[in-house]
Each structure stands twice: as C-alpha cells, then as structure tokens.
Design brief:
InterPro entries: Cytok_DH_C_sf, Cytokinin_DH_FAD/cytokin-bd, FAD-bd_PCMH, FAD-bd_PCMH-like_sf, FAD-bd_PCMH_sub1, FAD-bd_PCMH_sub2, FAD-linked_Oxase-like_C, FAD-linked_Oxidoreductases_BP. There is one protein chain. The chain is an alpha+beta fold. The chain folds into three domains: 79 residues; 119 residues; 235 residues. 33% of the residues lie in helices and 21% in strands. The chain is built from 18 helices and 18 strands. Strands 5, 6, 7, 8, 9 and 10 form a six-stranded antiparallel β-sheet that branches. A four-stranded mixed β-sheet has the order 1-2-4-3, sandwiched between helices. The protein has a four-stranded antiparallel β-sheet with strand order 12-13-11-14. A hairpin with a 4-residue loop joins β8 and β9. α1 crosses α2, α3 packs across α5 and α15 runs antiparallel to α16. The protein is globular.
Length: 519
C-alpha cells in the first residue's frame, strides 16, 4: 500500500534530474523521460495551493509537487517513477477540480494537472453515415469544448451533464448524469473505447471487446485503476433548437407518478420520447429561479413565490424536446401528446424556446453571475444520492419535509428526478440501486466559510435517516472514510474491485483522495 511521506523523504530527488538519474536504472527510464518529469514538476506555492483545494472548499490537502504534463508520456513516466521507489508515492489526476471532498488531492504526493495537456487537436471527429460518427477526445478536454468541436460537423453526443465545464475523464470516472440519462444512459454507457494509463504506468487501449476488464472497471471507477487520456464517443446528428417546459405541482405523488410515466417512454428512436427530464424543489422563502438557470418569466415571480409560501414546497417538473427544421412542424403536437394527462397545476405551465447550445450550457450564466459577486469560490457541502423508486415517497416525507424544510435548507438547488436502471451497465464500477426505476437527489448547497459545517451536519442527518429505515440508497459522487463503508457501498462488486485494483494498480498509488485503499 502506498504511504504518504513527508516532502523531504522523496521530493528532493524528484526535482533533481541528477539525483533522478542516479536512483533509477537506465533500463527502466530513458534519460529524456527523467528530464521531462523533472522539468514539468512544480512546487511553487501557487501550484501547490491550487492542487490543495477544490470546488467544495471544505478539504485542504497539499501535495508535494504538481506535474504539468506536456504529453501523456510525462504521466506514464511519473507513474513508473512512483512504482520504482521502495515505498511509492501517491498520484492523483485533476481535471477542473470540481470534486467537493478532496477526491482529486494527493497529500504529500503528486497531483497531475490534466489541463496542461489541453490542445484543440485532441478532439477529432471521424466516421461515416453507414458506420457511425465518433469523437476521439483527450481525457483532459472539457465537455463544452467537445460540444463546440462536434457541432462544427453538425454532430453531438447524446448524454451530458448539467454543467459542461467538466473534463471528459472526470465525468467518465464517476458516471456523468443529467436529464438525458433516463433515455440515453449516463455518459459511461456512451463510450466505445478508451486509452488508459494504469497504475503500473502501462498505456492500454480498451473497449467492451478488448481489455474489457479495464474498460468496464475504469468507467465509474473513481480513478482507482487508471487515468483516462482518451475516450471515443459516439456522435449523432445535432438538433438546432429546444422546447423547454416547466410545470408546477403541489402533490408529490402526482409529481413522481408523472415523471415515471414520462421516462417509461425511453427508446433512443421511440416516438413520443422526451430528450430530457429533471425535477426540482421550490422551497418556502426561496426564489423561484436559482443559479443553475433563470427560467420563469419575471411577471410570474410574485405568483409563484406566493404559491410556494402557501404550500412550503412546490415540485417542479422540467422537460425538453429537441428539434430542427425537419421536425419543427410536428414538435408542438408531439410535445402536447407527451404531456397530455399530466396533473400539474392549471395555469402553471411555462415554456421557452432556446437554441441547443443555450439549453445545454444553461448553467454557465449562473456561474458567471456568482463569480462576479464573489459567490462561486465558496464551500459547497453537496450531497448526491440515488434512491429506489419504492422509497421515494418516504424520502419526501422523511427528508424533504421533516429535515430539509424544518432546517430551512434552501441555500441551493435541490434536484429530484428518476432514471431507468436498464440504461446502465452493471459491468461498470458505478453502483446504483437494484430497482429498475430509481431517483437521483441532489442537494447543491452553497455556504459561507464559517457555516458549511452546520450544513454538512444536515447532510449527515439525512444519511442517518436513510440508514435508520434501511432505504438502500447509494451515494453518487460518494464520500466515505472507512474501507468498511466503501465495501458496503460497492456491495457485490467489492471483491471484483479489490482484485482489479491489485491487477492494474498493485501499489495502490492512484486517486488516494477517495480513501478507498489509502485511508
């Protein structure tokens, strides 16, 4: 097992080319590899401080050094260097640093700043109409750049995250979910090939047919088995426009039942299927819009606020249907047919017609607004859960009403929407509830630097309640402190994960911030 050493124990030799050459046999490392690693390692305070924090701003773990790779060979050399030591040092790959619990940190180890590889040429589109189109994308590339590059060809992936300023390697190491997941699956099921640098420093191309063990393990694998440096993503003709609709409910049972009915129509080419579905809570004393998107017409804000204050919680169903010039004439009828019979409040259906890019990048304007106010780089005590369909009513009463509402926990968006298990692949490392339909719940709170712990206590209260009634939830973007908790989280996959870790990262150097094998 990798052990974290103090900086003087190994850091000096890493930064000295001369000493590197004296420690490592030439047969293991060509001189150029040693030079590249040493040249691209930094230990200045700015680099270390940047690598010691993340979007959550709740954990600080400084590394000994930061690697700014000029090519993937630098990463390979670094990993082989770590393994050559009598006691290897830890390594963590960092994309945009959007984790919230220090998952991309490496205390006294080395953080790899993947953005240093960022090069537009590392997004390439190939294929043809008969065999299909694909984008080969560097793991360090952000999804917004993938979108812009593929749209130049009139193409796009089908599965997205709500926020596009995340790296491809980062979301594929978790799952990558959004309102499209019910129909198109998470991002991890929308990849056909990967290039991965394993924990042994091997560069391996893998797919469902070739080196399939590594392929399935890395997808949703939390960075435990390798660093994704390339992904091949299927592309499809991109729409131009989006009809975007929100509807309000006071009755949770009707809200949930309507969501479940809509996601039951989920074939990728099925008539009447929506392209996106999410839900969110509007809470007492909170605004009708939140930083993730401004949607409701200002002229209706007072009416919506009055409704929310009257009922304390309003449930908002959000759907979208894509279209282009070939389908715009039938769009309204298809959407009306899909929404016919839904039990939302009369007079509380709102529509917008926006471009495809504006819809997918809808969170960006809120981010820029918060940044301008100094409210973006603050603590984010987030909690993301998967809840079985059979327990969602109990979650509503026991958590939304008895905990969240009573604690006035309305410091950020609260998401609640269902997915279909059949759109996931159980061979992958990501874990979800056993039921065919399950809900994702996201408490996306922001706080001040002096009160985030109080918000996090509410998160712990939510988890205690779920455990006390044996709700069989699963955490998404999981955070645990003990290996026993991780074993419980992974369930029947735990033995396979242990074996795969020994196979591809035997010295357990990768992604120590999760504290799965490096607690």
């Amino acid at each position: 097992m990798a052990i974290n050493f103090s900086i003087p124990a190994y850091f000096g030799y890493m930064l000295s080319i001369t000493r590197l050459k004296s420690f490592i046999p030439k047969s293991l490392f060509p001189d150029d590899d040693i030079t590249a690693v040493a040249t691209n390692l930094r230990h200045d305070s700015a680099s270390l401080n940047s690598a010691a924090t993340d979007f959550g701003h709740m954990v600080t773990d400084p590394p000994a050094a930061v690697l700014f790779p000029s090519s993937i060979n630098d990463i390979i050399s670094l990993i082989k260097l770590a393994n050559s030591r009598p006691v290897p040092f830890n390594i963590a790959a960092k994309g945009c640093g959007h984790s919230v619990r220090g998952q991309a940190m490496a205390r006294n180890g080395v953080v790899v700043e993947m953005a240093s590889l960022n090069d537009p040429t590392r997004i390439s589109v190939s294929g043809n109409a008969s065999d299909g189109f694909f984008a080969d994308v560097g793991g360090e590339q952000m999804w917004i750049d993938v979108l812009n590059a593929t749209l130049k060809h009139g193409l796009a992936p089908t599965s997205w995250t709500d926020y596009l300023y995340l790296t491809v390697g980062g979301t594929l190491s978790n799952a990558g979910i959004s309102g499209q997941t019910f129909r198109y699956g998470p991002q991890i099921t929308n990849v056909v090939e990967l290039d991965v640098i394993t924990g042994k420093g091997d560069l391996v191309s893998c797919s469902a047919e070739r080196n399939w063990e590594l392929f399935h393990s890395v997808l949703g694998g939390l960075g435990q088995f390798g660093i994704i440096v390339r992904a091949r993503i299927p592309l499809f003709p991109a729409p131009n426009r989006v009809k975007w609709v929100r509807m309000l409910y006071t009755n949770f049972s009707e809200f949930a039942a309507d969501q479940e009915r809509l996601i039951s129509i989920n074939g990728s080419k099925q008539n009447g299927a929506l392209d996106y579905l999410e839900g969110l809570l509007l809470m007492h004393d909170g605004p009708p819009d939140n930083w993730r998107s401004s949607f409701f017409p200002p002229s209706h804000h007072s009416t919506i606020i009055s409704l929310v204050n009257q009922h304390s919680i309003i449930y908002c169903l959000e759907v979208a249907k894509y279209y282009d010039h070939t389908s715009r004439h039938t769009l309204d009828k298809e959407l009306d047919d899909s929404l016919n019979g839904l039990r939302f409040l009369s007079g509380y259906k709102f529509e917008k017609d926006v471009s495809y890019v504006e819809f997918l990048n809808r969170v960006r304007s809120g981010e820029l607004s918060l940044k301008s106010q100094g409210l973006w780089d603050v603590p984010h005590p987030w909690l993301n859960l998967f809840v079985p369909k059979s327990r969602i009513a109990e979650f509503n009463s026991g958590v939304f009403k008895d905990i969240v509402l009573k604690r006035k926990m309305n410091n950020g968006p609260i998401l609640v929407y269902p997915m279909n298990r059949s759109k996931w692949d159980d061979r992958m490392t990501a874990v979800i509830p056993d039921e065919e339909v399950f809900y994702t719940i996201g408490f996306l709170n922001s706080s001040g630097f002096d009160d985030w712990e109080a918000m996090d206590e509410v998160n712990k209260e939510i988890l205690r309640f779920c455990n006390s009634v044996d709700m069989k939830i699963k955490q998404y973007l999981p955070h645990y402190r003990t290996q026993a908790d991780w074993a419980n989280h992974f369930g029947h996959k735990w033995k396979r994960i242990q074996d795969t870790k020994k196979q591809f990262d035997p010295n357990m150097i990768l992604s120590p911030g999760h504290k799965i094998f490096n607690s």
